[in-house]
Amino acid sequence: MDIINLFELISRILIISISVSAPYIFAGIGEMFSQKSGVLNLGVEGIMMVGAFSAFYFTWAYNNVLLGIAVSLIVGAVMGLLMGFVSITLKAKQGISGIGIYMLGWGTAGTLFRLFIGGVESIDKGVENIDLPVLGRIPYLGRIFFSHNILVYAAFLLVPLSWYLLYKTPWGLKVRAVGSTPRAADTMGISVNKIRYQCVIIGSTLAGLAGAYLSIAQANMFTSDLIAGRGFIAVALVYFGRWKPFGVLKGALLFSTANAFQRWFQISGINFPYEVTVILPYLLIIVVLAFSHKGFAEPTALTVPYDREFKG
Amino acid sequence: MWGIDMQKIKSMEMKGITKRFPGVIANKDIDLKVNSGEVFALLGENGAGKTTLMNILYGLYSPDEGNIYINDKKVIIDSPKKALELGIGMVHQHFMLVPSLTVSENIALGSDFESKFRLDLKKISKNIKKLSKDYSLEVEPEKKISELSVGEQQKVEIVKALYHGANFLVLDEPTAALTPQESSQLISWLRTVIKEDMGVIFISHKLNEVMSVSDRVQVLRNGKTYFSAKTKNTNIDELAKNMAGREIKLPKLEAEKTHGDILMELKHIWVKDRRGIDVLKDINLKLREGEILGIAGVSGNGQKDLAEVITGLKKAYKGEIIFGDQNIEKKSVQEIIDLGVGFIPEDRLHMGTIPRFTVKENLILKDYLKNPFSNNYILDQNYIKNYCKTTVEEYDVRCPNINTPTHALSGGNIQKIILSRELKREPDVLVAAYPIRGVDIAAVEYIHSKLLEARENGMAILLITEELEEIMNLSDRIAVIYEGEILRILDNTAASKSKLGTLMAGVVDENK
Ligand SMILES: Nc1ncnc2c1ncn2[C@@H]1O[C@H](COP(=O)(O)OP(=O)(O)O)[C@@H](O)[C@H]1O
Ligand SMILES: [Mg+2]
Fold first, then answer.
1. Candidate from B21, B80, B407 with C-beta closest to A189
2. Does the beta-carbon distance from A183 to B110 stay under 8 Å?
3. What pLDDT does residue B256 have?
4. With 90 as the cut, is the pLDDT of residue B196 above it?
5. What ipTM is given for this predicted complex?
6. Is the CB of B368 under 6 A from ligand 1?
7. Does B11-244 carry CATH code 3.40.50.300?
8. Which of A229, B88, B187, B263 lies 20 to 30 Å (CA to CA) from residue B247?
9. Containing domain of residue A207, as a range?
10. What is the pLDDT at residue A266?
């Protein structure tokens, strides 16, 4: 294989890897906010499903991509409100309430899909690619980085933005305090529950958007297995990324590059059982998770509901 | 926060405060009045209701009955934010700091910022530095809380309260975790604040501190006020009696006896810490049957390492520990436990117990797999229940029942759980580290009498403490540790407070 071909191959893998990383970034960063404040939301997968469905439905029925995105954001926020109510106000065990949210999202999306769409439908025009002027024309790099749809750019901008929010604003300071020592935050006059609600809702809204990305920017269709575990991967990415925005980004890129590579491998004609290559990205995540588990980074109050008068 | 025009607190009064928790009345009809410019000491045994009362004042708990008046005007304090706004600052018994954040970030938490989008920590750091200079409380704003010692964290807590404009300070057992040196610094510091016309509520078990720092005292027992007086009109014995509801007499050993057999011997033990610095240097100690060997020293001079090397939690890189007829230095913790070494660790909640486990589970933690607690790996629940019920009664552990999670108990009661577990196993050697830290005077009396009883029965006890009175009351011999070395070993009769005090400061006098 000559050098030009190799370049071509690498850039093709990277283009795919960047565009498929966007939903992981949205969902992962969202989940990071939630966990940073102390709420483990395992319902991301379900929220992504309803997000994906509602975005698809409104784009398909009204031929309006923006409407689709807007509805997916709202639906995500509502799911977050529900998660917050169950796990913050009612203080239910977060692991279980998250799974409840997942089931709810999964069931709702599936049912509505059967009721309102029924069969295989697709949209002709999803979220469109925008070549950035000048930058988009740089050889190789232009195509890899600057020729994507607007949501991809948004995902990559979200990372520094969340970093700034978390580490450079008073609100971010409160989030970090609430997630590790809620009682201390409370004694300083911070409303623990308010911050947690905010974070859970931000997280689910982004999960809704991640779902929308899959249905109207990536696949341009909706099927009930569209999300395919990406929500759970997003949760793992938060651990992988040590609860830091750039860590989550790193994880998302690593995972989607492995995925893109794996897809290329399948069609490359190299004689190797594809079943094995399919599990490669997942294996990679598990291995990295197993080895990156040191030092304390986890919000110490993660999964613990806050009760002012509870003695503990 | 600075800037908001706050009225200064001239007087704070709580009237008829009652607070019930499921199963207990923590406060019953309590009245209390504190004026600015005085230190008001609130006394009471563990569980008397002091913290609850203060949490009500700070807006953390809402009272079932009663009202709070500031400058004779009724106020409703329904959140800590409200308390802060009124100028009440509180240093909690368990610090309210976020360990992963820096000092200035912790203080910034409660502040208002000019912009919602910019966290101006520089300005906060500058203000902290100024404040800490004005009040002579040294803190380093850029340090992380997790890197600070307990004493330093406490200073941060006080600075935090002052930063947010407190002119009325509540200190809940501030000296419980401090070294004697740090405690006396704090106490003399308090006198300077009082000159600035602040009001202070000071909670402590240590009666000598209360006598030296306070202007007035009030004693709570079982949630009720039992006694109040001007400090100068009362004395330690009277206070102790009112706290416990009976006469308290701390037991003392009768130093007579010829030495028993040597049960354990430490020979030339050297231990390094993680950074590779020697923390124990050539330690030689003999523990004898029926004898208490006291280790005196300012904490942080290797006591923790000494306790851990004996119990197998830390390994020595040189030297041996002979127990019975073998060297146990290389053995595992479990093996050492099984051979007959007991341990009352310094961090009683986290090392001595598993906080979320129930009282019952913690009581059998070391032996649950052995007969009679279990048969063929199956727990004998009936036996365990009866065993725990009698133990709790015998050791006077005050808990709602044996299925209460251990972290919900007060320090003194947790200590009794550990004490009973360790003593009932009848080990040959017991390492007791700071056994009375933070416990009330009645519990001190009890713990001391139990340790002396074990000594009578032949146990060899290594007692680590920094309370001189405790060490002189209990130890047959006293070894003074300083920077990882044993400076001197004295017989009880040859020891005096002043002699120990100078040795603990590392001064070895000429006439050996
Ligand atoms: N949040 C709570 N829930 C239930 N019981 C509590 C709570 N806080 C305190 N108590 C109980 O109230 C009593 C008084 O406790 P506390 O005020 O902490 O005493 P002190 O500070 O004097 O040691 C104890 O019996 C304690 O177990
Ligand atoms: Mg208390």
1. B80
2. no
3. 66
4. no
5. 0.88
6. no
7. yes
8. B187
9. 14-121+133-291
10. 81
